[in-house]
C-alpha cells in the first residue's frame, strides 16, 4: 500500500488549520452505482460530485487547508460494493483513503471475497468499512436489526483480520447495544458516526438513550467520535440560536479531543449549510480549546486513525488515548 500523500497548502497563515475531512462522498448519477431513490435530494441537487468539488468548496474558506480525507460509501447495492470502491479509488488522490461498504449479514465467503478484493486493489488504501445499521427508524437498505444477527456479528470479526476500522452508524436507542457488542472486539477501532445520529433533542426518551449510549461508547478506548451531520439534529446549530453547543462541549469533555474529530458529510450537508458556515460553526464549537486541541479536531485525531496503513495503527491510536487519559487524570 502506498504511503498517504497529503496535499500541501498554496497559502498558509499561522492561524490556518489543516483539515483532513474523514467523512465525505463522491458520486455520479451517470455511473449507475448510486440510486436516486436511496440518496434522494443530495443526488438530485448534485448529480455529479467529485474530489475537485470538495477542494473548491474549502478553497474559499481561509480558516482551513484541506489536506486529505476519507471517502465513505454511498449505500450501493451488494453487487456493486467492490465496483464502487474501485470507481472511487480511480478518481481520488493519494491523500484520500477509502471506507467502502460490506454487508456482514451475507454469507461469510462473500464478505471475505469482497474484503479481499477491496484490500488488494493497487494503491487501494482501504482503511475501514461502513455498514449502516440504523433500524427503527430504518435507514436505506437496513432490513433488520443487525446487532442481533448472528451472521452479521460473526463476520464483523473479519475486520480485525484485514486490519480495518468500523464506521458505526446507528440510532440513539441502539447505542448501548452497539457498545456492548464492540466492547468484545477491542482490536477493531470504531468510529461513531454523525454525533451518534441524534435527531430530536426535545425528545426526552431519545436524549436518555443517546446520553447513556454515548457514555457507554466513550468508556471504550478503541472508539472515536465523529462530529458531523449536525444540521440533522439542529438546522441552526452553527448560529447563536443553535442548541448543540452544550452537548458538543459535553462530548468533547467526555471523549477528549484526542478521540474526536470534525467531518463535512459533503455533499449531503451542502443542502443545509455552506462550507464557510460549516467551518465557522466548528470553530465556534471549539472556541475555548487550545491550539493543539483544535488541530486534533480538524486533522490530527482523524489522521491518526485513518492514515497509518500497518497493524500498528490500532495500537498507536490506543496508546495515544491511554497516555492522554493518564495526563488528564494527573491534571485533575
Helix content: 40-55%
What portion of the residues fall into strands of 2 or more residues? 5-15%
Q: What's the CATH C level?
A: Alpha Beta
Task: Give the N-terminus to C-terminus distance in angstroms.
Answer: 42 Å
Strand order of the largest sheet: 6-7-8-9-10
Provide an overview of this structure.
Helix 8 links the parallel strand 7 and strand 8. This protein starts with 16 loop residues before the first strand and ends with a helix. The protein has 13 helices and ten strands. With 332 residues, it is α/β, with parallel strands linked by helices. The protein is globular, with a radius of gyration of 19 Å. It has one domain: Metal-dependent hydrolases (TIM Barrel), CATH 3.20.20.140. 40% of the residues lie in helices and 13% in strands. It has helices spanning 36-39, 41-45, 51-59, 81-91, 108-119, 150-156, 158-161, 175-182, 204-218, 245-255, 275-285, 291-306, 312-331; strands at 17-24, 27-28, 48-49, 64-72, 96-99, 128-130, 165-168, 190-192, 223-227, 260-262. The protein has a five-stranded parallel β-sheet, sandwiched between helices. Helix 4 (81-91) runs parallel beside helix 5 and helix 8 packs parallel to helix 9 (204-218).
Q: What layout of secondary structure does this protein have?
A:
Layout: E1 17-24, E2 27-28, H1 36-39, H2 41-45, E3 48-49, H3 51-59, E4 64-72, H4 81-91, E5 96-99, H5 108-119, E6 128-130, H6 150-156, H7 158-161, E7 165-168, H8 175-182, E8 190-192, H9 204-218, E9 223-227, H10 245-255, E10 260-262, H11 275-285, H12 291-306, H13 312-331
Parallel strand pairs: 1-4, 4-5, 6-7, 7-8, 8-9, 9-10
Antiparallel strand pairs: 2-3
Amino acid at each position: 500500500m502506498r504511503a498517504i500523500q497529503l496535499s500541501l497548502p498554496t497559502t498558509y497563515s499561522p492561524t490556518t488549520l489543516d483539515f483532513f475531512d474523514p467523512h465525505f462522498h463522491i458520486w455520479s448519477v451517470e455511473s449507475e452505482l448510486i440510486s436516486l431513490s436511496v440518496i434522494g435530494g443530495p443526488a438530485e441537487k448534485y448529480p455529479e460530485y467529485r474530489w475537485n468539488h470538495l477542494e473548491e468548496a474549502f478553497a474559499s474558506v481561509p480558516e482551513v487547508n484541506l489536506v486529505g480525507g476519507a471517502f465513505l460509501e454511498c449505500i450501493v447495492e451488494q453487487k456493486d460494493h467492490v465496483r464502487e470502491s474501485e470507481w472511487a479509488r480511480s478518481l481520488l488522490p493519494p491523500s484520500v483513503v477509502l471506507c467502502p461498504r460490506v454487508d456482514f449479514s451475507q454469507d461469510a465467503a462473500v464478505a471475505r471475497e469482497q474484503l479481499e478484493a477491496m484490500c488488494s486493489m493497487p494503491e487501494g488504501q482501504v482503511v475501514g468499512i461502513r455498514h449502516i445499521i440504523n433500524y427503527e427508524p430504518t435507514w436505506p437498505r437496513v432490513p433488520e436489526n443487525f446487532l442481533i444477527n448472528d451472521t452479521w456479528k460473526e463476520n464483523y470479526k473479519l475486520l480485525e483480520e484485514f486490519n480495518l476500522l468500523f464506521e458505526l452508524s446507528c440510532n440513539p436507542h441502539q447505542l448501548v447495544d452497539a457498545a456492548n457488542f464492540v466492547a468484545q472486539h477491542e482490536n477493531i477501532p470504531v468510529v461513531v458516526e454523525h454525533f451518534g445520529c441524534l435527531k430530536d433533542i426535545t425528545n426526552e426518551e431519545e436524549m436518555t438513550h443517546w446520553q447513556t449510549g454515548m457514555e457507554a461508547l466513550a468508556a471504550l478506548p478503541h472508539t472515536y467520535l465523529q462530529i458531523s451531520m449536525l444540521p440533522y439534529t439542529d438546522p441552526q446549530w452553527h448560529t447563536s440560536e443553535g442548541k448543540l453547543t452544550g452537548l458538543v462541549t459535553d462530548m468533547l469533555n467526555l471523549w477528549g479531543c484526542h478521540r474526536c474529530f470534525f467531518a463535512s458529510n459533503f455533499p449531503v450537508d451542502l443542502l443545509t449549510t455552506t462550507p464557510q458556515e460549516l467551518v465557522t460553526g466548528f470553530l465556534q464549537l471549539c472556541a475555548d480549546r487550545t491550539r493543539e486541541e483544535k488541530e486534533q479536531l480538524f486533522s490530527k485525531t482523524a489522521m491518526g486513525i485513518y492514515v497509518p496503513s500497518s497493524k500498528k495503527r490500532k495500537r498507536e491510536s490506543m496508546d495515544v488515548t491511554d497516555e492522554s487519559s493518564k495526563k488528564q487524570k494527573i491534571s485533575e
